[in-house]
Amino acid sequence: MGKIGQFEERLKKLCINTTSDDKSTQFPNVINLNVGGYLFTTSLSTLTKYEDSMLAVMFSGRHDIVKDEDGRYFIDRDGKFFRYILNFSRSNDLPPENVALDVLKEAEFFCMTSLIEKLEAVAPKVISLRRREYFRQLIPDYEHIKNNIIQKATEKKTCFEESKVVITQSDHPKLKGQIPCYNCTREFVSVNHTCAFEGLPSDITISMKTMDIDIDKLIGFVVDELSHDGFRVTVNRVICKFSLRCQGCTLSGLYTAGGILAPRECTNVAHVIKFQW
Predict the structure, then answer these.
(1) Separation of alpha carbons 93 and 86, rounded Å
(2) How large is the C-alpha radius of gyration of the chain?
(3) What is the three-state SS of 3-52?
(4) Separation between Cα atoms, residue 273 and residue 226, nearest integer Å
(5) What's the CA dihedral at 255, 257, 258, 259 to 10 degrees?
(6) Which of 160, 159, 167, 158 is nearest to 226 (CA)?
(7) Is the pLDDT of residue 22 over 60?
(8) pLDDT for 178-200, tens place per residue?
(9) Do the Cβ atoms of 94 and 118 come closer than 8 Å?
């Protein structure tokens, strides 16, 4: 749906009707507004300053706007943060950081592109929001992964003040099968092991094949999101300590001279997310 279609849908929700082709609404230079019970007085030029905004469309003369019993133009929207929309139109003033996300929501509703771009450039909370939105696009089933972590942490929550969720990667390139020893060419080493992470069993296994980031960045992002949501969490990396040596090289002492990949280690990683309750 294009911008015009979005405008029309939103105008309908606000009970604002389009005028007929041969009729236009004449607005006074000074406009009295009732936005969800919040009263404002501003100029017509302020409301129509940004031509691509929904406010400019509303007060273009092409639409009939309902009035309240006192004759104020009524917009059926929570008006708590509307003054910041007006202040930006008046003098390019940006809202304080503590309400930046709320103002962003209103700016998006009224299609105030200039205000949205300013907030995305300088407001830390909005920048953080956009970063999180970007990462979510890189992670299929992100909400499922996050909610699964929270569920596991809650299930393991006891009378203690913390619980741990262990996350591993299902498609990590582990040591397995017949591995040749490049030092002693006659030997092959059979490998079949289960990764061990300091005695911690895996709670959640994730495949990274369909994701455009590695598991370290994924877990780091999830932990940031959990912290943003109010959880007290930390994360540690635990590496599988499994390693092997070619028996022939071991007996001859050659592995100490850089033979068999001397010794070869698994290096699969588990991420342990600790919740403090």
Answers:
(1) 9
(2) 30
(3) HHHHHHHHHHHCCCEECCCCCCCCCCCEEEEEECCEEEEEEHHHHCCCCC
(4) 10
(5) -40
(6) 167
(7) no
(8) 666 656 655 555 566 677 787 88
(9) yes
pLDDT tier, 266 (very low <50, low <70, confident <90, very high otherwise): confident
One-character DSSP codes across 137-199: HHSTTHHHHHHHHHHHHHHT--SSSEEEEEEEETT-----EEEE-SSSTT-EEEE-----STT
Q: Scanning the structure block, which residue is given the tokens 């009939």? A: 64
Residue with tokens 């455009």: 212
* Pairing between β-strand 38-43 and β-strand 30-35 as defined by DSSP bridges: antiparallel
Domains of the chain as residue ranges with CATH = 3-136 (3.30.710.10), 142-276 (no CATH)
Please tell me the pTM assigned to this model: 0.70
- Closest C-alpha to 103, from 123, 81, 125, 88: 81
Q: pLDDT of 249-261, one tens digit each?
A: 655 544 444 444 4
Residue whose C-alpha is closest to residue 165's, from 184, 181, 144, 151: 151
The per-residue pLDDT for range 37-92, each reduced to its tens digit, is 999 999 999 999 999 999 999 999 988 899 999 999 999 999 999 999 999 999 99
DSSP assignments along 237-248, one per residue: EEE---EE--HH
3-state secondary structure of 235: strand
In residues, how long is the chain?
277
More confident position, 158 or 205:
205
Looking at the predicted structure, is the pLDDT value of residue 8 above 60?
yes
Characterize 61-90 residue by residue with b for buried, 16 or more Cβ atoms within 10 angstroms of its Cβ, and e for exposed.
Answer: eebbbeeeeeebbbbebebebbbbbbbbbe
Pairwise CA distance, residues 196 & 175, whole Å? 13
